[in-house]
Amino acid sequence: MQAVLRHDPRIADSQTTRLLLACPDRPGLIARVSGFLADAGLNIVDADQHSTAEGRFFMRMVFDPVPPGQREELERRFQEEVAGPFEMEHHFADSSRRKRVAIMVSREDHCLSDLLWRWRSDELGGELTAVLSNHPDHADQVASLGLPFHHIPVDPAARAVAERQALDLLEGVDLLVLARYMQILSADFLAELTAPAINIHHSFLPAFVGADPYRRAHERGVKLIGATAHYVTADLDAGPIIDQDVTRVSHSDEVADLVRIGRDIERLVLSRAVIAHLDDRVLLDGERTIVF
């Protein structure tokens, strides 16, 4: 069954608070958290939870917004009464605060165009702040929407200079999206980046990694092609996977057909991953993710 894009601006506009947490699994966790919120007079409107075979518990709860001036006290009490005793990693987030998103892209614009369309249609769940590229190709498209476009050429002999320029421009963003950005980001860049980054990989990892994957897939006569969206780490294409999808192809599909079909999958998979992150639906479980 194919996953759907779950962000709904009507739900986001209702203004809610989200609680994400992870902790060792034990009886009574759901009751303890829901009881705390009920005692605070907060109505739960959505809840998801999952227990792993390794004994970890994950939960996402969405509830009424915390009244102004009471947030700090609520979080202090939750830490003392619930999170501390149950060894929880947790954080609260408000749907009314739209996360700031920047995009990095190279020449191919299919993922960029999709994200721009979803942002303009208020389907993204975040606020685009800028587009950075190592090529000038998309300047007009981005500028037509009133967004800043920054052309940062990457000289292989001076890659650190380009990365420094990008980091200065990315200061204050909550999420970086690599929408087919065809440059490898250094470990130093990722260490200084103050936000998570999501990348779209042009195959169903880990098969056919590297250059020209569709030609390699065609040569092997594959019957499925796909795409993978994952968080970016210093290990190339090895970050925690957020979303994946595949579609069936046949011997009659040529390389150009595989490229066209693959681009469609890349657009959808990247959008699903970005929306899930912006809606606070993703929790890390070691090298994998729990996506509610």
Tell me the layout of helices and strands.
Layout: H1 9-13, E1 17-24, H2 29-39, E2 44-51, E3 56-63, H3 71-83, E4 89-94, E5 99-105, H4 110-120, E6 126-133, H5 139-143, E7 149-151, H6 159-169, E8 175-178, H7 187-192, E9 197-201, H8 213-219, E10 224-231, E11 241-248, H9 255-278, E12 282-285, E13 288-291
Parallel strand pairs: 5-6, 5-8, 6-7, 8-9
Antiparallel strand pairs: 1-3, 1-4, 2-3, 9-10, 10-11, 12-13
Note the main attributes of this structure:
292 residues, alpha/beta, Alpha-Beta Plaits, 7-stranded mixed beta sheet, 4-stranded antiparallel beta sheet, 9 helices
Describe, in plain words, how this protein is organized in 3D.
Strand 8 (175-178), helix 7 and strand 9 (197-201) form a beta-alpha-beta unit. Helix 4 packs parallel to helix 9. 32% of the residues lie in helices and 28% in strands. The protein is α/β, with parallel strands linked by helices. Strands 7-6-5-8-9-10-11 form a 7-stranded mixed beta sheet. Strands 2-3-1-4 form a 4-stranded antiparallel beta sheet, with helices on one face. Strands 12-13 form a two-stranded antiparallel sheet. The chain has 2 domains: 17-94, ACT domain (Alpha-Beta Plaits), CATH 3.30.70.260; 99-291, Rossmann fold (3-Layer(aba) Sandwich). It has helices at 9-13, 29-39, 71-83, 110-120, 139-143, 159-169, 187-192, 213-219, 255-278, and strands spanning 17-24, 44-51, 56-63, 89-94, 99-105, 126-133, 149-151, 175-178, 197-201, 224-231, 241-248, 282-285, 288-291. It is built from 9 helices and 13 strands.
